[in-house]
Amino acid sequence: MVDITVTVNGAQRAGSVEARKTLADFLRDDLDLTGTHLGCEHGVCGACTVIVDGRPVRSCLMLAVQAAGSEVTTVEGLAPDGELGPLQQAMWDSHSFQCGFCTPGFVVQATAFLSAHPDAGEQEIREALSGNICRCTGYQSIIDGVLLAARRGAEI
Amino acid sequence: MKLPPVDYEAPTTVSEAVELLAEHQDEASVLAGGQSLIPLLALRLAHPAVLVDINGVAGLSGVSAADGWVTIGATTREYAAEESGTIADKVPLLAAALPLIGHEAIRSRGTIGGSLAHADPAAELPAVALALDAQFVVHSQAGMRTVPAADWFEGYLTTSRGPGELLTEVRFPAAGRGTGISFQEVARRHGDFAIVGLAASLTLAGGVITDARLAFSGVADVPVRATGAEDLLVGERPSDGLFDEASRRATEDLDPPADLHGSSEYRKKVAAALVRRCLRAAADNAMEGQ
What we know:
The complex is a heterodimer of chains A (about 160) and B (about 290).
Chain A: E1 2-8, E2 11-17, H1 23-30, E3 49-52, E4 55-58, E5 71-73, H2 86-93, H3 103-116, H4 122-128, H5 140-155
Parallel strand pairs in A: 1-5
Antiparallel strand pairs in A: 1-2, 3-4, 3-5
Helix pairs in contact in A: 2-5
Chain B: E1 7-9, H1 14-24, E2 28-31, H2 37-42, E3 50-53, E4 63-66, E5 69-73, H3 78-82, H4 85-90, H5 92-97, H6 104-109, H7 112-118, H8 124-131, E6 135-140, E7 143-148, H9 149-152, E8 153-155, E9 158-159, E10 166-173, E11 179-186, E12 196-205, E13 208-217, E14 224-225, H10 227-233, H11 240-251, H12 264-288
Parallel strand pairs in B: 1-3, 2-3
Antiparallel strand pairs in B: 4-5, 5-10, 6-7, 6-10, 8-9, 11-12, 12-13, 13-14
């Protein structure tokens, strides 16, 4: 077992993990942050995307021990006061959800992308979200939501 | 699936890393960005006894340029290479290929050395390294050796790196004056592994092609250089007729693998189309620069 300390959603969290434990399992099982979803567990579906040191990362393709000393933001950390964030509100308004399983990954990936590319257009948003799989919506409503968030952001 | 039990070492120097590799030999897997290795573990396609995590090894990350070469440390993240002004300026073919690797979240962790050591024949970087005659620097307890790209890729996911060796850096030659490039691929979705990809570089002097480089991804168990077509192009002036002829020459001996994404015949047609498109784009790119 390896002792690690990770800053998760602004708070220092300590744990003792097996080397083989992924960051995703550490977040879900050790820290009870079950908003990070695991779909495929081999880096294809994007549901487990979290932000590590400012970059979107697949938490199933990173070991928990590798996150020691890093700053991690999960979907729970995007709206800490229980309100919807601007992106979440825009996705709500656009009916970007059906079953909701893929939603945390899309919200985290889109958050990371829009913070780096606030003026992104539809094509760029489609490319940025191309690594996240949704089996319900057909994607259009998700793209609409992220685009709406980008437009509202530009108006502020 | 969850990963199988595995020991974990995190060396902080190259000498510690190669000592661990010497000790564990075939039982060790080098962990860099983990974007290929961790799926292999999850799917039980790799069974190492120990992971040697080189992310904390000092001096393995970074881009530098000297004497006509650009040196990229093995653990340089793909996103960092994508943002590198040095690579954009001096190795434009690599810069063109980087945004096509996987998805944004993959490039956050994936490394230049990791992709080239993993040596997936459908990946972008092996084709670029082969096209440009990159050099691979490996360290072991016996010392250091440099392997040319032509000798690096030996088979499917197999390189000439020995079990006790660590890839520490890759050197790309800086593009000369009058060089134009194009990297294109055909994939089902943006970010998916390409059905076929092509790295192309043309150097023009006085309107005549003085250097031509073409390397395919996705057509065999290793990236494939189209030397016959390169020879045909050198000394000629760019024209659609010439590029059609080069396309025929580049693909006549290909026998691509078939899978559910495309038959062998389809891949061959895509490869031929990519040769024409990339050569036209590379020639236009070269002329823009003059």
